[in-house]
Specification:
Elements lengths: L7 H30 L4 H11 L3 H27 L7 H25 L4 H33 L1
Length: 152
């Protein structure tokens, strides 16, 4: 009899949100890179960035970080959905959860370094990675419990 995956719902729901968010981030990055490449928008972009206190290089790095986040979100979301009910794949989801948390912390550290820091941003950016990690952890514990009972 196959073991139930207690973290299935977390991985499924968070995976869907990660895919949707990743696709929106990717579209946003493509549009922003396209605007940056247009000479007629350069003065407007520079004026807008100056008003917000962000340099052009900080803006470019933020776009690259967002593009990386989009890829990580889509990939880990797909992995979470496909493996949500497979407790034997719990370690893969566990590693993906760690990657999500680490990348969120890296992005928040960069925000703090560039002078655009908010505790609400930190909390909000960690909600989905922590829920994903929790689902993976629940599946991993179910796998370990199943292996422990098989040995006895």
């Amino acid at each position: 009899m196959p073991k139930k995956a207690p973290g299935r719902t977390f991985l499924m729901v968070v995976g869907i949100f990660l895919i949707i968010g990743g696709l929106f981030n990717a579209i946003s990055c493509i549009m922003n890179f396209a605007v940056m490449g247009q000479e007629e928008f350069a003065p407007i972009l520079e004026q807008t960035l100056a008003q917000t206190g962000i340099t052009k290089s900080t803006y470019q790095v933020s776009l690259v970080l967002t593009a990386i986040q989009a890829v990580i979100g889509v990939v880990t979301g797909i992995i979470g959905i496909l493996n949500s009910n497979k407790i034997e794949k719990a370690s893969l989801c566990y590693v993906c959860g760690i990657v999500l948390i680490a990348y969120a912390l890296i992005c928040n550290a960069y925000s703090a370094f560039s002078g655009v820091f908010s505790i609400f941003s930190v909390i909000f950016s960690l909600i989905l990675p922590l829920l994903y990690f929790w689902g993976a952890l629940k599946n991993r514990q179910a796998l370990q419990d199943g292996q422990g009972t098989a040995i006895k």
